[in-house]
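Annex B.
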Amino acid sequence: MALSDEIKSHSDTTFKTTWESRDGTVVPEPSALKLTNDAIYFKRATVLYADLDGSTNLVEKKTWSFAAEIYKTFLYASARLIRNQGGSIVSYDGDRVMGIFIGSQQSNDAVSCALKINYAVKQIVQPSLKTNYPKSD
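Adenylate/guanylate cyclase domain-containing protein: predicted structure tokens.
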């Protein structure tokens, strides 16, 4: 089967198939997700999406290694805080990380996490950057 035929077949099947859903109480592992019309329904969930401000300019104007260090420290801090606050990492996309919070206090947990990420960047990561790269802007 040609690749175009395979894509058409998949598209036709997807558009014709009825969605099946099940209630979710935990964020599923990637292996539990299907590439079919299968959904996990959460009665309440809060998504936190944290991205690095100015990252395009960073990549265009700084060395690749410096930009990578910035990305790595930001993503590490964000991911550790998301997990520490009870969230689950659902994706990374370049300079962004997405976490999901479920449970009775999920919105409070997500907001608290966002504030902790902001604090960590300003009070921990940026001072460490200035110590190690004092001439960097």
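The CA atoms of residues 128 and 134 lie 10 Å apart. The mean pLDDT is 92. Further annotation is deferred to the next reporting cycle.
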